[in-house]
Amino acid sequence: MEFTAQQIAALVGGTVEGDPNVKVATFAKIEEGHPGAISFLSNPKYTHYIYTTRSSAVLVKRDFVAEQPVTTTLIRVDDPYSTLAQLLKMVADYVIPRHSGIEQPSFIAEGVEIPDDAYVGAFAYIAKGAKIGHGAQIFPHVYIGENVEIGEGTTLYAGVKVYYNCKIGRNCVLHAGAVVGSDGFGFAPVDGVYHKIPQLGNVVIEDDVEIGANTTIDRAVMGSTRIARGVKLDNLIQVAHNVSIGENTVMAAQVGIAGSTKIGGQCIVGGQVGFAGHLNIADNTTIGAQAGVTANTTPGSRIIGSPAINATDFARQVVYTKKLGELNATVRNIEKQLKNK
């Protein structure tokens, strides 16, 4: 596919500065730009590339002011990054085909109905009582347990496992190796021996959720582990039993959430964050990478560190820590002066 800068601007509500007829057919990072590519400038630290990039067009903010001559064509938009995402989605919808039909060998229990526009890949297993929505994409080696519900337009990539009684909403994406509904880590010690506590609940994943590769979401002891609408989870995340995650919260890779913690909506969680159990994390909380969260938060909090503290206090502590060597030398010097008196 090939588009002019003017056509792209019309699609995304932008304005062109430069050659409106320049053509682009692919995407490239601004620092790796080449003729025929479109790039974007969002992070200020990449601004210097706008003056040297060879990309034919670059998405920039409407208020971008060039400090040197720019040879590429600019497409001014409100948010270059989200506009890029919009363009990538348009291309993906065109070039990535949606499958339909049932490949063999696969197992579909008696009584399970597969809509004509759905897809079941080879070696998939769908147990009795399962419900599969229109347009669902079930790739090879997926396991769907008894009474599982898969919503319309949801994609389960190769090797996804969904245990019995779990529910997945519409237009969700579960990447390869994700496990939904495995037993929570529940054991009761009796006379030095750990006895398993049956995990009789389920997992409920609402609409428009994306689950990264090899992420695991444990079923509840009772009730539901719940992932709300619009949540985006990266790869290798562990969500324990009876956790709930609020709408449109995003988490980077290797986050671990202990049992019964409630995370609010619109939260941003960096990579390798660890949550203790039975916490209440308020809406709009931002948590820096590798934080160890051991206490509840208030709405709009920004925390980092282990144990996690207010981000401003953490930054101040880092400054103090850097000065410890100088402080130690000063103290020793004072001690010597006192001894010599």
Protein model, in words:
The structure is a single chain. This protein is of the alpha/beta class and 341 residues long. It has two domains: 3-95, 3-Layer(aba) Sandwich (Udp-n-acetylmuramoylalanyl-d-glutamate--2,6- Diaminopimelate Ligase, Chain: A, domain 1), CATH 3.40.1390; 101-314, 3 Solenoid (UDP N-Acetylglucosamine Acyltransferase, domain 1), CATH 2.160.10. Strands 8-10-13-16-19-24-27-30-33-36-38-39 form a twelve-stranded mixed beta sheet. It has a ten-stranded parallel beta sheet with strand order 9-11-14-17-20-25-28-31-34-37, with no helix packed on it. β21 and β22 form a beta hairpin. The model has no long low-confidence stretch (mean pLDDT 96).
